[in-house]
Structure of HTH-type transcriptional repressor GlaR:
Amino acid sequence: MTSASTPFRTAASALANDIRADIITGHLPPGTRLRIKDLCERYDSGAIPLREALSRLATSGFVVAEDQRGFRVADVSAEELLDITETRIHIECEALRRAIARGSLDWEERLAGAHYRLSRLPLHAPDGSGLSAEWEQAHSAFHSALISGSDSKSLIAIAELLRDQTARYRYLSVQHNAGTRRAPAPKKGKERNVTDEHRQLLEAALARDADTAAELLAQHLRQTTQLVLAQIPSH
């Protein structure tokens, strides 16, 4: 039974990853009805692993399961983004504090390497369509490396989920701006320097200054959320 069920679990996991990626990047927009027949064709899959994949995504908040009506992509709202951000700050700052207290030399090397890659990549895509996909991947890897020295697998897992949730909003904001050709909201005061924010985070973490690192991380996440909220329509 175990050997027979392994391919099923593997297929369901792969489908869940593919569907989640399409939801995050906006290829499956908020509110989209997820019809099994259409999804079978889209992902070249059978119905049984698809239903399992959708059920898994429902537990992580990307998909909503409705009685007698099947599944749909979860909606988005400013209230939800603010809630996700504050929860992420609480979880990720605690994980960062643990990483700083317990992280090994390997953690320091991993973090420094992730920052080096991020700092060498352009922020925007060459065609001006939004953030570079390669930069986005490096950015996620840097934030993962920040907390990877933590001794709590649960904190890391929750932080990764919340990071995916906020990435979804970021992609939606970029798509909205591209569709409306709306310029970013004018900045007040000192212009934001994301590269410098990441550098300061790296330096505080490597200096084992947990208070400063946690404060910088919280500020970094809140600033990003405010920019996203200014660029997406209300729901």
In short: The two ends are 46 Å apart (CA to CA). Residues 78-230 form a domain with the Four Helix Bundle (Hemerythrin (Met), subunit A) fold (CATH 1.20.120.530).
